[in-house]
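Quick one:
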Amino acid sequence: MNLLKEFQHYIKKENLFQQKDKLLLAVSGGVDSAVLCELCKQAGYDFVIAHCNFQLRGEESERDEKFVNVLGKKYAAEVLVKKFDTERYAAENKLSIQVAARELRYQWFQELVDSSVASHVVTAHHANDNIETMLMNFFKGTGINGLKAILPKQGNIIRPLLFAKKEELLIFARDYKLEFVEDSSNASDKYTRNYFRNHLFPDLQKIFPQVEENLAGNLQRFREIEELYKQSILLHKKRLVEQKRNEFHIPVLKLQKTTPLSTVVYEIIKDFGFTAHQTDECIALLQSETGKYILSPTHRIIKNRNWLIISPNETAEAANILIEEEGKIVFVPGELEIKSLPQTTNLKPQTSNNIAQLDAGQIKFPLLLRKWKTGDYFYPLGMDKKKKISRFLIDQKLSLPQKENTWVIEMNKKIIWVIGLRIDNRFRITGSTKNILQISFLHK
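Output:
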């Protein structure tokens, strides 16, 4: 099978695009993109050419741009050129030159697709590029997702040469007497990829002559393994994660029995902004007391008895924490200590707003610890009339952040204490009180 037939077969097998589609070929002027242009012309595809001038190699960059314009005339194709101030963009965004160039390139390509210049962006990445990417990802520790390397299709980005080795492209260029330009930076080891290409890979071939074929075969297997991996993770998520409004509840006991635990935990929490390094912290929550939590930039995972609860950490609706017995409860603002005291004549009434003394005979567990919400009301100590907590907080002259961070303890849909401010009059100590439930609040 010749390269053209393999090219057409690969496009069909991977369902990359249709014969009628308008293509945007990303052309640098090197041998890979020169071969891409020739194959697309021979296959009868309709295309325009896009060339990025990153202005990083002086006269050589200008030479490449002129060559691509000549290439456009050869194939009677429209040529679109964009000059980038790559070094400035890299400095402003604190990126490496390589990353900056990649971002600029694909941002422009997407703009062209969005403006209907073409329906697909086609790049000239080939099998050797893919092998190098896989090895680089392996050494960087990107996991199974990185081992699949470059995919033939990602959205509207198409790579129809991934089936072909560099050597095959060079032979094709020679056979068809294709002109192309050489990028002098390819010989430099300044970039990581060039080190892999110029040193590591040739050394591997000395020890394993079939390394190219073996790794190319592994790429397909890794793609399929990742598909199985994603299917398995999805099943674990369906089994473990229950969504309740904007919260996600995970049963601790069921999660503890899951294997492999670290992998499943990471795949669940990464969707909420948590890093791989926080996986162990999340697993430690399984053994911690109620109220312990960890934070990501967007979410909080809090231990609530037999549940882990994931909730947004910037909303008024925080996780509800169930208090089923006396003891210590750790939550976002601090710590609660709950204990029973006998009512005695020498027991001094508490004057601190951070200590609530309540009639234990009027209270039954479980209690609910949560942030106050609109519509909440209680009977402030000393009053027989109910009052909305929103009005109560205004009367207390609290700042907006203080209002937003006010928590309450609720029993059977009745608020017994606005923490740090006032208990409910219905649960106050009276002459008939036999036992006292004392709740102390300690700020962090």
